[in-house]
Amino acid sequence: MSHQRDSFVTKFGIVAAVAGSAIGLGNIWKYPYMVGANGGSAFILVYILAVIFFGYPLACSELALGRKLRMNTVDAFHALGKNKFWKFVGFLPLITMLLITSYYVMITGWVAWYFLISIGGQIREVPATTLPADFYKNLFSQMTASIPIVLTTSTVLLILVALVNARGIKKGIETCSKIMMPILFVLIIILIGYSVTLPGFGKACAYMCKPDFTAIKPSVIVAAIGQTFLSLSLAMGILTTYGSYIDKSQDIRSISKQMVIMDTTIAILAGFAIFPAVFTYGLEPGMGPGLIFMSLPQVFLKMAGGALFAPAFFALVLLAAFTSLISLFELLATYLIEKFRISRYMACAWGVAILFFGLLLCTISQRPDSNILVFGSKTVLDIFDYFTNNITLPITGMLICILVGFRWKTENLEKELAIGAKKTASLIEQRTFDILIKWIAPPIIFVLMVVWIYSAS
Ligand code: PHE
């Protein structure tokens, strides 16, 4: 590489950036309703197992791979795999990223809009003649129907993200994550502090913890694995990209551990921040993606201090989504810089242009009267989410394990992980890693995919 690669500087900055990538809409918008839809604590249990057995080893592998090769994801796969097949596989993360970012930026745009109307107070202006439930349903569909609103907020966000990335890894991404992540933690703690005082807290605990083991079906396990990948930003080359900017003096195992713990904690805490209020005011917890846009505002309307709780909540979601978008964007930026040998500014400008198209497609299809509905009533968002969560993420995750385990070899992974490590991993830990990456994760993911495809057809 002819140009000098920028890099992260401090461990705190790296952890903030990777945790910033991991903690996002997946934790606050998606995880709580996935728990609700998939058997409560049974799902949490499967999820935690998936995090330990697939998430953590894969996070270490991706970061180590990036640091070793110091290149963008597409080239990294090709460099290790050394043939056309792996070159093709290298494009999978890029495609997944383009699909996910298209809808991710749109939903973040919705959140930004809700943040603005909760600051401005319009979110509370329910006419006396209308039921709050109807009012919020209307508010949401009016927003999604309004292309100017969604496109403006989402595009402004996309440009802000590009501006952060254009400043580079150290000055842009690291600085921004170091400021935003601590604010996010403070906000969620304040929100939970309030939620524990609500009468619905006990019910929320029961809901989050009530086990229903009959609910553990292959589809639930596939969903939990997909959710693990999405939530930890895995199987998308994000961590390979971030890893390529991490110095040899850093301990990758420790960074991965901290990130995995923070991400899982925030996902579970988000449930505890949201559900007590939902139960206190007798709303339906399993209502799916609309939960934070249609149910929660009704809660904010009724609760004491709701005028403050609402903007704080949407600020939390906005911050979480913003730092995730930065990492998604960086995957594309690094690729464009290295592939076309253009400047970072130029790459970011192209990044905005490319992603704008995906955003436009999602925004138009989300309109209630849209005719870009594929397969009956599904929107582009539904399709992109379903396709990435259930297909491309698990497949790419499995292929990364095979690439690392058999092409790069786990001995080399261990060597890379030992660089910068404060203490060397015990033999048992090394052996477990080896077995997990080579012999457990790939076949399990494969079998689950087959069972899932079979049962879905
Ligand atoms: N991990 C993010 C979340 O939980 C989603 C994401 C995936 C972000 C991949 C960046 C890259 O919302």
Task: Name some characteristics of this structure.
457 residues, mainly alpha, Hydantoin permease, binds phenylalanine
Short description:
With about 450 residues, the chain is mostly helical.
Overview of the structural elements:
The longest helix has 39 residues, at 380-418. The chain has a single domain (11-456), classed as Hydantoin permease (Orthogonal Bundle). The protein has 17 helices and no strands. It has 457 residues and is an all-alpha fold. Bound molecules: phenylalanine. Phenylalanine binds next to helix 1, helix 2, helix 10 and helix 14.
**H/E element order:** HHHHHHHHHHHHHHHHH
> Shape from CA axes?
globular
Largest sheet: none
Assembly form of the protein? single chain
How far is the N terminus from the C terminus? 47 Å
CATH fold topology: Hydantoin permease
Overall pLDDT score: 89
Helix percentage: over 70%
Report the radius of gyration as a whole number of Å.
21 Å
What is the CATH architecture term? Orthogonal Bundle
- The fourth-level CATH homologous superfamily is Hydantoin permease
SS summary, helix count: 17
Structure classification:
mainly alpha
